[in-house]
Design goal:
elongated; Arc Repressor Mutant, subunit A; 8 helices; Rossmann fold; five-stranded parallel sheet; binds calcium ion; about 220 residues; about 20% strand; four-stranded antiparallel sheet; alpha/beta; single chain
């Protein structure tokens, strides 16, 4: 579990970092909103602890930007003011929880654990077809135990196939689910991406999993 602490007060940041590390978490610290936002956008953290009052970019704007960029990492906001307006503003911006300073470390820890547990419960299950597995939470794919590296788009395409094993997917269905829109010109792009996937998933392996259904689309199945 890797956590990000965005906090400009050095004492508070090191107190949180030290305490969480003693509990076995890996902890990164960002000293301002700009750096915090850049680190959180890497999507490698399981949780972000975000101070509201930060230099460069304040916490609420960092949070709004993260949610705008579809980063779903849970965020625990730290605030000194405990007005209802502040809490509503934070929660509206996409915070999962908030904590008012000063706080006892045990309370922070309890909230961190609760947020991480909630996230674990919400994690989708691992998908499997024959010896091909896809882990949506880890964003990893392997076949026969061998890890396969995919681009973001290839991953999204394979995930769509694996959620619909044995079902013929038309190019229109694929473009709407994987690209979020539909263009006639997309058909060629889809064929190109399916070929990329084939090279990574099926080339040199048996059984072949991605099959062309002539004039219709594609189907993922083991046979
Ligand atoms: Ca601060």
């Amino acid at each position: 579990m890797r956590l990000l602490v965005v906090e400009d007060e050095k004492k508070v940041a090191s107190f949180i970092k030290k305490g969480l590390e003693e509990e076995g978490y890996a902890v990164d610290v960002a000293p301002d909103g700009e750096e915090g936002l850049a680190m959180a956008l890497d999507r490698v953290h399981d949780l972000v602890i975000l101070d509201i009052h930060l230099p460069r970019i304040d916490g609420v704007h960092v949070l709004q930007e993260l949610r705008k960029q579809k980063v779903a990492t849970p965020v625990l906001l730290l605030t000194v003011r405990a007005t209802i307006e502040d809490k509503v503003l934070g929660l509206d911006a996409g915070a999962d929880d908030y904590l008012t300073k000063p706080f006892a470390f045990q309370e922070l820890l309890a909230r961190v654990r609760a947020l991480l547990r909630r996230r674990a419960e919400a994690e989708p299950p691992i998908l499997q077809v024959a010896d091909l597995t896809l882990d949506p939470a880890q964003r990893s794919v392997s076949r026969g135990g061998e890890r396969i590296d995919l681009t973001t788009r290839e991953f999204a395409l394979l995930a769509y196939f694996m959620r619909n094993p044995g079902r013929v997917l038309t190019r229109t269905m694929i473009s709407e689910h994987v690209w979020d829109y539909h263009f006639d010109t997309m058909t060629n792009v889809i064929d190109v991406y399916v070929n990329y996937l084939r090279k990574k998933i099926d080339a040199g392996r048996e059984p072949k999993l991605i099959h062309t259904v002539r004039g219709v689309g594609y189907v993922l199945k083991a046979e």
